[in-house]
Amino acid sequence: MRRREFITLVGGSAVTWPLAAGAQQSGKLRRIGVLMNASAEDPLGQACSAAFAQGLQQLGWEVGRNVQIDYRWGGGDNERYRKYAIELIALSPDVILATANSIVGYLQQASRTVPIVFVTTIDPVGSGLVASLARPGGNATGFTNQEYGMSAKWLELLKQIAPRLTRVAVMRDPSLTSGTGLLAAIQAVAPSFGVELFPIDVRDPGQIERGIATFARGSNEGLIVASSPLAQIHRELIISLAARKGLPAVYPFRYFATSGGLITYGPNTIDPYRRAAGYVDRILKGEKPAELPVQAPTKFELVINLKTANALGLGIPTTLLASADEVIE
């Protein structure tokens, strides 16, 4: 059962869109760098890059005519992020689209002057990427995808679905400032839900497997997966481990539910790329990132995978089903 319009996007590094009405007529070919945290083969990464290119096309930027887009795909590897950040800066782009806090950090290490528009970041002020949300003040601005307080909602949803839970693991990447902040927000509300938390710190697939295996040894247990590039890239592994161990789990984005995850709560992952095209357009026309405010998500989606719930023997409350934006059957 779907309650949202389904949009199919075909994306990749070689996309040419038809010229839109009112397209830029300047003979100068502008250059945009794109550094993605996904791998080039990831359908989600392709959909996001396609949404960005489509957003540019709607604003009059045609690949090959008045704009060139140089893509790099990091695939969750910090060394690749660092390498590709240097490569893209060396190409002297007019602006760079960056995904994830760590990628923006590497780009800023390489240059404090090349404009950066970021998406899927958490707490850019606390991470030192911008001076403030209203006036970023440096060479970066963009779109956040979460705020720490929403992580308390993950625990609330988990308890609604599995009221007997007493032990909950929180999977996070400790190398990210956001991982610490999200965990702290969950810890603040855990006593009110009668839940004991167990952080699982992960930096690679092996730690994901060991962490879940070590935690899942009893009953009345659940899992919260905090947002991180690692969780995005290895989502199928995490979801399969949770199913194997019989763990009710809540995830940060819809694509976890479509991959078999139980329940997700978070912002739309495609929309920020379309919105980022607008900021890129404004920068190409002369505006400065320092003066463009960082924008927060405008809508959060609740998605429930009823098939997974049935496999786990969980009955979803009708009130929760009624409030869901999408129920996968």
Describe this structure in words.
Helix 1 (43-58) crosses helix 10 (271-284), helix 2 (78-90) crosses helix 3 (101-110) and helix 4 (151-161) crosses helix 5. It is built from twelve helices and twelve strands. The protein is of the alpha/beta class and 329 residues long. The strands form two sheets. The protein has a seven-stranded mixed beta sheet with strand order 7-6-8-9-10-11-12, with helices on both faces. The chain has a five-stranded parallel beta sheet with strand order 2-1-3-4-5, sandwiched between helices.
The span between the termini is 7 Å
The largest sheet, given as strand count, sense and whether it forms a barrel, is:
7 strands, mixed
Radius of gyration: 20 Å
Say how many strands there are: 12
Share in helix: 25-40%
CATH level-four homologous superfamily name of the largest domain? Response regulator
Order of helices and strands: EHEHEHEEHEHEHEHHEHEHEHHE
If helices are DSSP runs of H or I spanning 4 or more residues, what is the number of helices? 12
| Share in β-strands | 15-25%
Shape: elongated
Query: What's the number of structural domains?
Result: 2
The side-by-side strand order for the widest beta sheet comes to 7-6-8-9-10-11-12
Overall CATH architecture of the largest domain: 3-Layer(aba) Sandwich
Low-confidence stretches: 1-26
CATH topology of the largest domain: Rossmann fold
Oligomer: single chain
CATH class of the largest domain: Alpha Beta
Structural class: alpha/beta
| Mean pLDDT over the full residue set | 89
